[in-house]
Design brief:
- This protein is mostly helical and 383 residues long.
- Among the domains are: 102 residues, Tetratricopeptide repeat domain (Serine Threonine Protein Phosphatase 5, Tetratricopeptide repeat), CATH 1.25.40.10; 84 residues, Serine Threonine Protein Phosphatase 5, Tetratricopeptide repeat (Alpha Horseshoe), CATH 1.25.40.10.
- It has 20 helices and no strands.
- α7 runs parallel beside α9, α12 runs antiparallel to α13 and α15 packs antiparallel against α16.
- The protein is elongated, with a radius of gyration of 27 Å.
Length: 383
Amino acid sequence: MTLDKKAMVLSFSLLCACAATTAQDAKPEALFREAQEAQHSGNLALAVSKYREVIRLDPNVVAAHANLGVVLVSLGRYGEAITQYQIALAEAPDSAALRLNLGLAYFKKGDFAGGAAEFASLHKDDPNDVRVATLLGNCQMQLGLLGQALGLLEPLEKADPDSLDLQWALGNALIRSGQTLEGLKRIQKVADKGNNAEAYQLAANLYLGLTFFDEARRDAEAVIRLNPDAPKAYVVLGMVADYSGNEKEAEDEYEKALQIDAQDLQARVQLANVFIMERKLDAARKQLDHVLTLDPNSLVARYEMARVDREEGNLSTAIQELESVEQQNPEWLQPHMELVPLYYRMKRPADGDREKQIVDQLRAKEQERRGQTRIISPQVPSE
C-alpha cells in the first residue's frame, strides 16, 4: 500500500530561469505545453521525449526537470527521476514540492535512508504536516528504527485518527515491534474503512497466525470480493480448511491459487503437505520438485521432501535432509520433532535423546512467547 499521493506537476512559468518569454523562448514553451498534454493524456513516452527536448534547448527550465521526474517515477525509473529532481532543486532549493517529490522517489525506489533524509528535513520545517510525518515514520520502520517510528507515529494518531495512511504505517510498525494485536487493529481499520484488498490480506495472514480462523476466513473472502485473482487469499482459505481437518477443501483452495499463479511456491508447498496427509506421495514429490527447481534453497520444501522420504521408507535420506534444514534454522521446532523418532528407529538413541532435549527447550520458549503475544508457531518458517 503506497502512502504517497499524486506528485506535484509544475507549470512552465512557475519555475523557469527566464525572466520573460522572448522569441527564442517560444519553442521551449510550446514544447513544454506539448509535454504536459502528453503527460496528462497518459502518453508518458512522448512526455519524456518532449521534456528532454525542452531541457536540451534550455537546461535551466526547472519545471521541465521537475515534471520529467514525475513522469519517470510513473514509469518506475526512479534513479533517473531522482537525478532530475536533484537538478531542479539545485536551482530551486527551497521548493517544498520538489523536496517531497524527491523523497517519494527515494521511497518508491526502496531507498528508505534517502527518503528519510528528505522527509526529516520537511518534517523539521513543518511538524504539523501529518502526511510527511507518516512517510518519515514509514521510512524509519523500513530501516528497522521501530522506536523512532512509533515515537513519531503514535502521537500523530491522536491528532488525526482518520488518516488511513497513518493507520497503515503505525499498524505495520506495531506488528514489526511484536505488538501484533495492536497493529492488527489498525490494519483492520484500513481494510474496512478503505475497502483495501492489501490490508485485508495482511489482516487475514495475521489472524491465521493467531489461530483466529473465522476472522482469517472473513478477511480472505473480502480480498476475493475485491480481487478474485488474488492467489494469497485462496492460500489463507486453504490453510484454514487444512487446520480444520478438511483436506479436500484445502486442496481445492490451493489449486485455485495455482490456477491464478502457477509460480506461487507457498501454495505448492501447502498442497504438497495435503498430499502427504492423503498419502499421495508421488503427487507431493512432484509439487516439491517444482518448488525446489525454482528455489533450491527453500527450507520449507526441503522439510516437506524429508517427510515424503520418511513416508516412503527412505529414512537415512530423510534424516540427512532434516539435519541440513535444522542446521540452517536451528530454532524451527518441526525438523527437531521429526528427527526424534527417526533417530530411535535407526538405533541412534543418543541422537534421539539430544533432539528430544532440544524439542523440550524450543517448546518451553514457544510457550513463553505464546503467553506474551498469543501467536502460534507457524507451520513453516519465513524465508
